[in-house]
Q: What sequence folds into this?
């Protein structure tokens, strides 16, 4: 439930609404906006008597949020959420953001080599798994803490922000310590204790859509994170299971405009896991930007043939540089821009 204040409501009137909501046994979340302030009533509001709130001075109207997900919905907050990282990259604003890097962090040489080439091509966020959720227990599971340290080293050298995955509540702590964004993988989208732990971490969270999850499921999972007090959530369309075996997954680009209308959270696309095939990554990355994605995440490896995971879908660095040019062109055509590159800023 949302208590919308009149545009000239005083601080005292807003505070009275907050206190009243708390007296009624609910949490209150003030939501300042450009036009007016609203106060959210957080919790199961099915039985709330709205007339008590409507009668308070300075209250314009009380709105029942119709969706099961509340705080992530556009009904709750009309303005799009923008997340600003320490290196200045903004996610959810007019700029299209590019996150790139290998599937897994494999060695210092590999991650430093690829990071400098990605930065050169204009990417501002480096991806790379230190903890890998693999379908087989016999596949490479990642370098763990050492991988996180190598990512931090790559950030020191290039100025790129880091996104890397936490696979369980235990790994949220170390990932939050080293990374700028905590990734939650498709296989974990409904791991509710992990979502809660990521919500309490205070770090931005990249939440990937589960391979059999609806958009509603995705938004309800995001609500778990926001309900812990962390509004910095980025959604990611990474493909769902289809019936056609030509691609690894079915990249659901329709989800992008759908999410944009239902939620104020930013959404990016991952055409690498979405297609599983190097030759299909570039066209689908272009399509995702054209469809209105706030960014793309792509796997790039200095030597894909020798990659320890997902080599077949990893771009060569030269292909990535070409893709960046194309993304710039598409972004311009739809009235957006590419996130400013780090090339002008000094590195440590
Ligand atoms: C990844 O990004 O490395 C990954 C494992 O992706 P997903 O969770 O989408 O499969
Ligand atoms: Mn991968």
A:
């Amino acid at each position: 439930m949302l208590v919308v204040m009149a545009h000239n409501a005083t601080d005292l009137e807003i505070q009275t609404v907050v206190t009243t909501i708390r007296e009624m046994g609910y949490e209150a979340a003030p939501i300042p906006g450009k036009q007016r302030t609203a106060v959210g009533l957080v919790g199961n509001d099915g039985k709330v008597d709205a007339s008590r709130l409507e009668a308070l001075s300075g209250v314009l109207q009380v709105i029942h949020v119709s969706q099961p997900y509340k705080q992530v919905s556009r009904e709750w907050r009309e303005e799009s959420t923008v997340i600003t990282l320490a290196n200045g990259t903004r996610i959810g604003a007019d700029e299209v953001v590019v996150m790139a890097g290998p599937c897994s962090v494999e060695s210092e040489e590999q991650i430093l080599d690829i990071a400098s080439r990605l930065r050169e091509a204009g990417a501002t966020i480096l991806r790379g798994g230190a903890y890998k959720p693999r379908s087989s227990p016999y596949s490479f599971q990642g370098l763990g803490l050492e991988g996180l340290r190598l990512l931090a080293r790559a950030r020191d050298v290039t100025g790129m922000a880091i996104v890397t995955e936490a696979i369980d509540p235990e790994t949220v702590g170390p990932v939050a310590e080293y990374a700028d964004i905590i990734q939650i993988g498709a296989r974990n989208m409904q791991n509710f204790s992990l979502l809660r732990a990521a919500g309490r971490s205070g770090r931005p969270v990249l939440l990937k859509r589960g391979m059999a999850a609806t958009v509603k499921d995705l938004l309800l999972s995001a609500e778990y994170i926001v309900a812990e007090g962390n509004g910095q959530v980025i959604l990611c369309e990474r493909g769902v299971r289809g019936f056609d075996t030509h691609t690894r997954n079915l990249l659901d680009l329709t989800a992008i405009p759908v999410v944009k209308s239902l939620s104020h959270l930013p959404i990016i696309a991952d055409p690498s896991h979405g297609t599983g095939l190097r030759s299909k990554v570039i066209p689908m990355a272009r399509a995702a930007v054209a469809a209105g994605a706030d960014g793309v995440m792509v796997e790039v490896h200095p030597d894909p043939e020798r990659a320890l995971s997902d080599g077949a879908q990893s771009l060569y660095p030269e292909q990535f540089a070409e893709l960046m040019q194309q993304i710039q062109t598409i972004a311009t055509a739809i009235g957006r821009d590419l996130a400013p590159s780090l090339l002008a800023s000094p590195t440590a």
In short: DSSP finds eleven helices and 15 strands in the chain. The CA atoms of residues 152 and 178 lie 6 Å apart. The pocket of manganese (II) ion (ligand 2) is lined by residues 103, 273, 299, 309-310 (CB under 6 Å).
